[in-house]
UniProtKB/TrEMBL annotation:
Its cofactor is Zn(2+). PROSITE patterns: PROK_CO2_ANHYDRASE_1. Belongs to the beta-class carbonic anhydrase family. It comes from the Bacteria. Catalyzes the reversible hydration of carbon dioxide to form bicarbonate. Zn(2+) binds at C55, D57, H108, C111. It is an enzyme of class 4 (lyase). It comes from Rothia koreensis. GO terms for biological process: carbon utilization. This is carbonic anhydrase. Transmembrane segments: none annotated. CDD domains: beta_CA_cladeC (cd03378). Keywords: Lyase, Metal-binding, Zinc.
Length: 212
């Protein structure tokens, strides 16, 4: 990656990401940065322009849906985008050491982790094992959505959108490293909702004006 790319603004990083998703949706991906030359150029280090904190779901491959390649994105994934000390530390590393200008929280429809949380809300029973930890972290989004829309009108997609926004806000609130980067306009944090059927990733939260 060139020096000019390394110093792109959050707005420029956002445009690059949005343009890549548009190509993917339209079925005309460029498949950039996926050849032997690119691979060799990254052997001594990385300089991604964004970090994507997405769900572990197999249908949510970040580099594919944003039409990116090797070295473009630093990717962290957990079921339901649940934050932990390890995932938050990885996100802080991307800001403190890699100086990424854009942080993306990426949720999607038909999310199994959010479905489990919604089912626990209805049944009053928690799942066994460490899946319980996932449900406990996602439950605030389920509760907020259900209370806002009403139990009968709250959709799973709306719960995912709420969870995505809450995770993005939590990243900023809980991490001094991330919040400082946001306050200094070095990094923007966005939340996106991915539609599995049409491939479109829509913006549901942003810490900055990305159109300027």
């Amino acid at each position: 990656m060139s020096d000019s790319q390394a110093r792109i603004t959050p707005q420029e990083a956002w445009k690059r990401l949005a343009d890549g998703n548009a190509r993917f949706v339209e079925g005309r991906p460029n498949h950039p940065n996926q050849d032997a030359t690119r691979r060799e150029s990254l052997a001594e280090g990385q300089n991604p322009f964004a970090v994507i904190f997405g769900c572990s779901d197999s249908r949510l491959a970040a580099e594919i849906i944003f039409d990116l390649g090797l070295g473009d994105t630093f990717v962290v994934r957990t079921a339901g985008q649940v934050l932990s000390s390890a995932s938050l530390g990885s996100l802080e590393y991307s800001v403190a050491e890699l100086d990424v200008p854009l942080m993306v929280v990426l949720g999607h429809d038909s999310c199994g982790a959010v479905t489990a949380a919604s089912q626990s809300y209805d049944s009053g029973e928690m799942p066994p094992g460490f899946v319980r930890n996932l449900v406990e972290e996602i439950m605030p989004a389920v509760v907020e959505t259900r209370r806002s829309a009403g139990d009968d009108d709250a959709s799973l997609a709306d719960m995912v959108r709420t969870n995505t926004r809450q995770v993005a806000e939590r990243m900023i609130d809980q991490s001094k490293i991330i919040s400082a980067a946001v306050e200094e306009n070095r990094t923007a944090v966005v939340g996106m909702f991915y539609n599995l059927r049409d491939g479109k990733a829509e913006l549901v939260f942003s810490s900055h004006d990305l159109d300027s």
